[in-house]
Amino acid sequence: MQLPLPVTLPDDETFDSFISGGNDEVVSLLSCVASHSPDWRGEPALALLDAASIPLINLVGSSGRGKSHLLYATCHQLAAREIPHAYVNFTDVVNLSPKLLEALEQLPVICLDNLEAIAGHAAWEEAVFDLINRVSETRIGLLIVAAQSGPNASNVRLPDLRSRISAGLTYQLVSLNDEQRGEVLSSRAQQRGLSLSAQALHYLLNHSQRDLPSLMALLDRLDQRSLQEQKKISVALVKRELAEDTDPSAS
């Protein structure tokens, strides 16, 4: 058992493709977890996690800071080692059943993404609370939870759930600067075999929205446009694509 849902994780979102910026500590921690699970207890680099009352790691930060990327990277490394694990994304919580979380405590690593989506859903909050308790009791595996806000600032209504999450290790992910965002785009373009000139990259970073989700979405569009027109991604192509954001009739 690796994934409780037929989820296909992005192939290019691995530890190698993650530009850590100021997030070196948590990247190192998760890589160590993925390298040593299920026998991570006693590993010196994971001493803090081993000492925590609940084996849980919180990844906190606003959209675009790489929380999901780090969960994907952890799962990819575990899959490469054929270590059982689970990845659950709560963004589609209304179409899922809390029963999805049953028996996951038997797995070495459980990744829960976008926890904020269950806020106010009593059945889901109870289910996650119960899962954390089972993980704590069985001592088989560990949890990695990603959310936009920390447990103390969470909109989750169940006090006991906030308390359980707070018992884990919390890492606030920091945003990348423009140079690091440029590294991300260059790396992703290279992985796709795209020709992205330094001038086009500079223009893109200075004339578009700077959050990574928007930048990656724009790169996807430029990739499609480049294929359609059989052209390299030039400043002119970037300008034309950005113009369509403000004038949909432009082409």
Q: Could you walk me through the main structural features you see in this protein, from its secondary elements to its overall organization?
A:
The protein has 251 residues and is an alpha/beta fold. Helix 4 links the parallel strand 3 (109-113) and strand 4 (142-147). Helix 1 packs parallel to helix 3 (67-80), helix 7 (198-207) runs parallel beside helix 9 and helix 8 (212-229) crosses helix 9 (235-246). The mean pLDDT is 89. A 5-stranded parallel sheet has the order 2-3-4-1-5, with helices on both faces. It starts with 23 loop residues before the first helix and ends in a 5-residue tail after the last helix. The protein contains 9 helices and 5 strands; from the N terminus they run H-H-E-H-E-E-H-E-H-E-H-H-H-H. InterPro entries: Hda, Hda_lid, P-loop_NTPase.
Would you identify the regions where 5 or more consecutive residues have pLDDT less than 50? Answer: none
Shape annotation? elongated
Give the termini distance in whole angstroms: 47 Å
Strand content: 5-15%
CA radius of gyration is 20 Å
Tally the beta strands. 5
Helix and strand composition category: alpha/beta
The helix fraction, in percent, is 40-55%
Total helical segments: 9
Strand order of the largest sheet: 2-3-4-1-5
Please outline the major beta sheet: 5 strands, parallel
Helix-strand sequence: HHEHEEHEHEHHHH
**Mean pLDDT across all residues, rounded?**
89
